[in-house]
């Protein structure tokens, strides 16, 4: 499917920048337009692939291009004040050629954390196409303010978008690596997973049409209904059959019927085991997959390595594991030397990380309430004291 991607803040901009690179490398054609929005000029300059005219600096009057620090309330304010500048950039893209918006943002900082939900609300009001969010949660070692920002932004973001796809930096941290080097790998993982998923609905004219190809509406239907989504992924290297794969099977060049049966069984087994690995391995947001509302299974690879039986078995297995009545599945033929299973789990309910974040948000709210309560009590005491003092007069 074709997306208009808007990277909000530093992480958001960098990830959208990587999506453009991915599109270039793989010819997947999912990025119809790419925009970066930031209050920090240096972050916009640091991008490689997003066109200069699509880099929007907001909040200049307030922070003079220096960013908002990790102040996400200020981030939300400057986004609201300068929403017209963002809209001007969006006006330049042919939205009639776009299937959905994808707003990408790190949720622990200031600009993206505060601004992404503001933009989502704005776009929802103006456009009828879906507005999705890709929210990146901070590592727990980043510190309290990042967690608190994420807790607050998450609640707002999930409410404003049609679906919030989540990637949790915390479960993807690699030890013994510099943070920057670590982010590069993490960002590559993000674009690969979401790239295959969104790319599935974008089979070009020249490409082979698969037996049961996934299309954009299946992705949109899986994401409809809202909530939080996570993505599982597993792949296995295979040899590209340069001799034209299918043809040699029809002509019987590669042996007899017994071999073909063996091939078919291997293909089916490879697919079902990849589906299990993808669902039970590391998800972009770790969670219990049981209780998932809707799911989409995408099997990508050279078409001679894909078959309907494997995908159907994988789909059935996912239905059992998730308890969902709405599991879609299909293929995404690509001439890459690997078979990959990407699984979109939409409307997940049992997510420990989110429960902890909600707790943080509640505690922060309680603290604010406590402080207010305290000041109210102080006020009352003052008034009572006044009354005490006043009493003798009467
Ligand atoms: N995955 C990923 N996360 C990042 C990257 N850069 C920053 N982050 C995360 O995003 C959060 C927000 O940082 P940043 O995007 O710089 O904040 P902002 O510019 O104020 O929106 C941080 O707390 C990190 O958890 C990146 O390149 N990749
Ligand atoms: Mg930053």
Automatic annotation (TrEMBL):
Ubl conjugation found in the keyword field: no
Cellular component aspect of the GO annotation: cell division site; cytoplasm; microtubule
GO molecular-function term, one example from the UniProt record: GTPase activity
Coiled coil: 354-381
UniProt KW Signal keyword: no
Matching InterPro entries: CetZ, CetZ_C, FtsZ/CetZ, Tubulin/FtsZ-like_C, Tubulin/FtsZ_GTPase_sf, Tubulin_CS, Tubulin_FtsZ_GTPase
All residue ranges annotated as the Tubulin/FtsZ GTPase domain in the record: 2-195
Keywords in alphabetical order: Cell shape, Coiled coil, Cytoplasm, GTP-binding, Nucleotide-binding
Pfam name, any one: Tubulin
GO biological process: one example: microtubule-based process
UniProt-annotated location(s): Cytoplasm
Positions that bind GTP: 10-14, 110-112, 142, 169, 187
Family the entry assigns: Belongs to the CetZ family.
Protein purpose: Involved in cell shape control.
Name the UniProt record assigns to this protein: Tubulin-like protein CetZ
């Amino acid at each position: 499917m074709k997306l208009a991607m808007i990277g909000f803040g530093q992480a958001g901009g960098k990830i959208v920048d990587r999506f453009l690179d991915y599109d270039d490398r793989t010819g997947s054609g999912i990025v119809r337009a790419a925009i970066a929005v930031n209050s920090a000029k240096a972050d916009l300059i640091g991008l490689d692939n997003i066109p200069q005219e699509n880099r929007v600096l907001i909040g200049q009057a307030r922070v003079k291009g220096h960013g908002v620090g990790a102040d996400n309330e200020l981030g939300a304010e400057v986004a609201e004040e300068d929403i017209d500048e963002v809209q001007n950039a969006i006006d330049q893209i042919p939205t009639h050629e776009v299937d959905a918006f994808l707003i990408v943002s790190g949720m622990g900082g200031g600009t993206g954390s505060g601004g992404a939900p503001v933009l989502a609300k704005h776009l929802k009001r103006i456009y009828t196409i879906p507005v999705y969010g890709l929210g990146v949660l901070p590592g727990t070692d980043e510190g309290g303010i990042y967690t608190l920002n994420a807790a607050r932004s998450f609640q707002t973001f999930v409410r404003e978008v049609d679906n919030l796809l989540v990637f949790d930096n915390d479960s993807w941290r690699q030890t013994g690596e510099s943070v920057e080097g670590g982010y590069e790998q993490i960002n590559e993982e993000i674009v690969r997973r979401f790239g295959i998923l969104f790319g599935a609905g974008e089979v070009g004219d020249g490409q082979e049409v698969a037996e049961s190809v996934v299309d954009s509406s299946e992705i949109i239907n899986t994401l409809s209904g809202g909530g939080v989504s996570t993505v599982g992924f597993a792949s296995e290297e295979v040899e590209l059959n340069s001799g034209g794969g299918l043809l040699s099977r029809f002509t019987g060049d590669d042996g007899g019927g017994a071999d073909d049966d063996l091939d078919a069984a291997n293909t089916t087994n490879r697919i079902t085991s990849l589906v299990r690995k993808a669902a039970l391995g590391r998800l972009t947001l770790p969670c219990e997959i049981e209780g998932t509302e809707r799911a989409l299974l995408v099997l990508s690879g050279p078409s001679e390595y894909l078959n309907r039986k494997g995908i159907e078995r994988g789909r059935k297995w996912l239905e059992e594991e998730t308890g969902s009545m709405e599991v879609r599945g299909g293929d995404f033929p690509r001439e890459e030397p690997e078979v990959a299973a990407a699984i979109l789990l939409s409307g997940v309910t049992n997510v420990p990380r989110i429960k902890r974040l909600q707790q943080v948000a509640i505690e922060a709210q309680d603290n604010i309430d406590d402080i207010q309560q305290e000041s109210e009590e102080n006020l009352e005491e003052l008034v009572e004291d006044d009354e005490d003092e006043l009493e003798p007069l009467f």
